[in-house]
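In this section we walk through a basic example: taking a raw amino acid sequence and producing a predicted 3D structure, encoded as discrete structure tokens. The instruction is simple. Fold the sequence below.
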Amino acid sequence: MKKIGYFLMLFLASLLVVPTVDAQAPNTLTAKEKKQGWTLLFNGKDFSGWRQCNGKAMPANWTIDDQAMRVSLGEGKKPGQGSGGDILFGDKKYRNFELSIDWKASDMANSGIFYYVREVPGKPIYYAAPEVQVLDNVNATDNKIDSHLAGSLYDMLPADPANVKPVGEWNTIVIKVKDGKVTHTQNGKKVCEYTLWTKEWDSMVNNSKFKNFPGFTEGISKEGYIGLQDHGYTVWFRNIKIREL
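The resulting token sequence is shown next.
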């Protein structure tokens, strides 16, 4: 009986031992993702394919930090003051796609992810492109308006639910655009849904700060670059991958 009890205890203990599985390395694709058509826009080592919006080189306030793109406060600037460091992936324009990005905010941070970027000389990246908001929802000064919170279609449609993770933790945003129909999925939950080039879209534009932006009143482009914003705060981006639909 003692032997039976001893072996029974060993058996039960073995059930509690769960083999560990290594997490997927940052900035890599699984075999399944490759088969599904995903490609990386960032290799975790350098800025290949990226450049300043309306420029040719990468701005100095962008660096590689622990396999992530890191944008920081530009020299001589105060928090909240960008230094012309908005960037885009300049190798290709996209029309129908699914874009996935991990982002992490510092305290009070504010930034944005753009799609259908149309470069207009002398104008900022947000002049003619929809923005998906990146924000420290707790301490950022721009947290008073629902449509300015993380995951929102900036100044047009709030993210619901507001499920952003705290400062210092990684969030994943997936932006899907197919024939004008757009969804934002943040941390596994769909938080925004809208359709471009419709009466409803025009109404949202007219009720936003973009109502007098020619880039919006003339109409959002039907293809364009993927872009990231320099808003004068430290923000990290990694696992930037896209697949065309």
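Looking at the output, two observations stand out. Residues 2-16 form the longest helix (15 residues). The chain has four helices and 13 strands. In the next section we compare this with other chains.
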